[in-house]
Amino acid sequence: MKSQQDPRSDGHEPAEISEQASIPKTPDTGHDKRSPSPEGERPPLPPRPSTLSLLNDETASRATLQAEATTAVSRMDIGTQSSDAGSAHSTMALRGLPRGPRAKTSLSQLASSRGSEAGDSASIRSSILNTENGDDGALFTDFVATAPGGQPQDSTGLLNFPEFAADDIDDDGILSEFESIGELNEEGDNEEMLLQRWKAKRKHYVILSAAGKPIWTRHGDSGLISGYVGVIQTIISFYEDADDHLRGFSAGDTRFVVLTRGSLHLVAISRMMESDNQLKLQLEALYMQILSTLTLPSLTHLFSVRPSTDLKRPLQGSESLLSSLADSFTRGSPSTLLSALECLKIRKQHRQTISNALLKTKASSLLYGLVVAGGRLVSVVRPKKHSLHPGDLQLLFNMVFEADGVKAGGGESWIPVCLPGFNSSGYLYMYVSFLDIRDDIENSAEITKDESVAIVLISPDKEAFFEMQGMRDALVEQMEKNGSLKEIKTAIGNGRPATTDIVPGTVLHHFLYKSRANVQFTMSSYSPEFSSLTRRRRLMSMYNNLHSSIHAKDTHVKVHHCVSRSVSSFGWVTPVFELYCIAEPNTNRNALAQSASKVAQWAQREEERLFIIGGAVF
Amino acid sequence: MSESASANAPKPSSSVKLVLLGEAAVGKSSLVLRFVNNDFQENKEPTIGAAFLTQKCSLPTRTIKFEIWDTAGQERFASLAPMYYRNAQAALVVYDVTKPSSLTKAKHWVAELQRQASPGIVIALVGNKLDLTNDGGEVSETAVAAEAESESAEQNGEEGAAEEDEPQDAVSGDARKVSTREAGSYAEEEGLLFFETSAKTGTNVVDVFTAIANTIPESSLKTGRGTGAGTGQTSLGRSAEDARVNLGDRNVAKANEGCAC
């Protein structure tokens, strides 16, 4: 436990790892009556037994009993606690009817345990503040600047060890998650069936106005689910009336998280075992997408002129952007989880050559210039004074690579876009051109997302299309001449390295490595083990849990090792990096630690290939 | 085929700026995609902002290079439209034959173009989604119907709806809400080219662009070697007439031999 107790230790070597959980010594906050458990023992019992429970079998039954007792009296349980920031937040826990001892009990317990995690959003707030004072010199401004061991936080999140979060998602489940539920027919007699399908989805996003108008929902049209939107609106406004903000609640194994921004309520409804923080980040991103479409002043103006404004109309055409963003969260996005970007691994010298080409061909009205390969950044050119925000780039990449609106057009695009992280009050204009870097033109239909290379040039001047086009032509000519296109192609062909490429014979199956200073991450290849969507979703669930355990409030976890029936996961956080690894459940602890340390060494050795450090600046 | 033809005897070529305008989801991008790539996508996502594409169209005496601005139809992009039509020599104003409100919107665009765009702009009014109607359009002679049928058969066989919608089939399944006569007479009044098309089956798509290419007055073409071609039609009204009358046969034939797509 030494490594956890010293938050300032550089943590380059995972000195000691507790078998199941690393419980830090937390300040005595009154409701925390535990003492650190000795190594080797199972983690201590939860601090607030009325709403929290471990997933261990022994405690599950106990918690069920309590749930029964509570629900027998009232189905609502409202608790108010003061958070570190000193402001009072209340959360509401809606418990489902008592459940018998069944496989999913643990899920509902876990979900309800989150119900009492008050003050989760405190870190979001502070991170947003951090966004404002971005470091001029840095390439990226960190969106979520939560330093580990920064301030005392409460340790409840640590106890969330779902056995295997996505275990209840079968193979069809994740695929059907993205299917349309269909349309109401003219007689309206299929409504029941549609609602059934709607309810079967594990993940919902609903955006509504403060006046209660549905604005966007991921599944089903607003007519179909208007009743549910009304219920959500009622619950939210119940708290608003009391000058309070509802942040989230649980019903059975379903978690509801509410984010209010101006006149908008964004609601995430998840049965996929995501933490409040993760869901909140997703809602933030959806809100950013709305800002990106409308800009903050016009959004504010619309609602100040008419609070009952139907935002659906101004947002028309951007629904697919919201949907593809939402689906990327549902599939599991390392980028969102880590609030960081991935770069294409390429030799430092080659990246330098591309950066030089960008600088050399830079058009006078250019703000940002990006070369992107399948959502992975290859090179950037930017003004010295302006960093790029990962959140903004996430929106751009979603638009360019995930949503079909741009790519399917087949030509060059000129898109007005607001980058809220850069400036939420106005539009920039984005030139997008896809390059065909393949040798054989024959199977042109089969360019996968990972293979497509795009030149993205952003200008504040809306008339600058042809100027940007000229720059693109010059840039592509340069990159062709100096062999950069070939290098990009090779790098794409190489793909991400397998864990065994990095550490021969390693026990690790997959890892995520985030360089904190660069706000960028790298990871090992999904294939062969995590190629399928379902397996990938499971992998991401494991990372979600690992991540929320490590970044739970009031913890100073440096190293976290968790063994479950299906997986053993390992997280390691230092001021320099965050490393998350997944291995077989019965993996030897020393082997795991050794591999993790080798991966970390590799990432630091290869830093200049894996990450863009600084980028081209003018 | 046209490439080899143009390689043998280089024809004077000139570029034409063309802009597509119209309500959201009427099929502007699908028309362009059919013209440029001879391709069609079901459930295409809405265009964001605008897309810029080029396509050559080879006429007997010259080559026209279309520089096409495919704009997004959503209202929030409307304020950007002037940027795209400002120097355009041609405009395609598209509506959906199954949606009357889209014709109203098209009329607004036509009015805006006549008021604000360059005076000589050639405007074509295009009613898209003809595959959703029973007839191949009232003007269609057998040539067009046959053309549509053979083309749809050539494509990927998912044109069941189009094949069922034979002209003889009286009422069932006809989603047409805008009559050819109504739109046609409006186009005549305003001196517009007029076509009904299906981007899905390809019916009349190339014809629209060919007709525009033929209609652009020689004098307005910015080209280094744009001399010598004698067949350029200068009278907008007359050529519009031509296009309507001939759409069944001559233009189709010309399009098929002429356009590089």
List keywords for this structure.
heterodimer; A: 618 residues; alpha+beta; Beta-Lactamase; 6-stranded mixed β-sheet; 20 helices; B: alpha/beta; Rossmann fold; disordered N terminus; transport (chain A); Mon1 (chain A); membrane (chain A); endosome (chain A); protein transport (chain A)
Outline of this structure?
The complex is a heterodimer of chains A (618) and B (261). Chain A is an alpha+beta fold.
Structure in words:
Chain A is 36% helix and 18% strand. Chain A is an alpha+beta fold and 618 residues long. Among the domains of chain A are: 68-119 and 153-331, Beta-Lactamase, CATH 3.30.450.70; 346-493, Dynein light chain 2a, cytoplasmic (Beta-Lactamase). In chain A, the strands form four sheets. Chain A has a six-stranded mixed beta sheet, with helices on both faces. Chain A has a six-stranded mixed beta sheet with strand order 11-12-13-9-10-19. In chain A, strands 4-3-7-6-5 form a five-stranded antiparallel beta sheet, with helices on both faces. In chain A, a hairpin with a 5-residue loop joins strand 1 and strand 2 (88-94). The longest helix of chain A has 19 residues, at 276-294. Chain A is globular, with a radius of gyration of 24 Å. With 261 residues, chain B is an alpha/beta fold. Chain B has a single domain (2-258), classed as 3-Layer(aba) Sandwich (Rossmann fold). Chain B is 38% helix and 18% strand. Chain B has helices at residues 2-8, 28-37, 81-85, 100-116, 142-154, 160-164, 180-190, 205-215, 236-246, 250-258; strands at residues 13-22, 50-58, 63-71, 90-96, 122-128, 193-196. Chain B has a six-stranded mixed beta sheet with strand order 2-3-1-4-5-6, sandwiched between helices. In chain B, a hairpin with a 4-residue loop joins strand 2 and strand 3 (63-71). In chain B, helix 8 (205-215) crosses helix 10 (250-258). The longest helix of chain B has 17 residues, at 100-116. The radius of gyration of chain B is 17 Å and the shape is globular. Chain B starts with a helix and ends with a helix. Mean pLDDT of chain B is 76; it is low at 1-6, 137-170 and 224-261. The A-B interface holds A 293-294, 313-314, 316-318, 320-321, 399, 403-406, 408-417, 430, 462-463, 465, 469 and B 24, 29, 32-33, 36-37, 41, 44-54, 68, 70, 72-77, 80, 83. Strand 11 (412-417) of chain A pairs antiparallel with strand 2 of chain B.
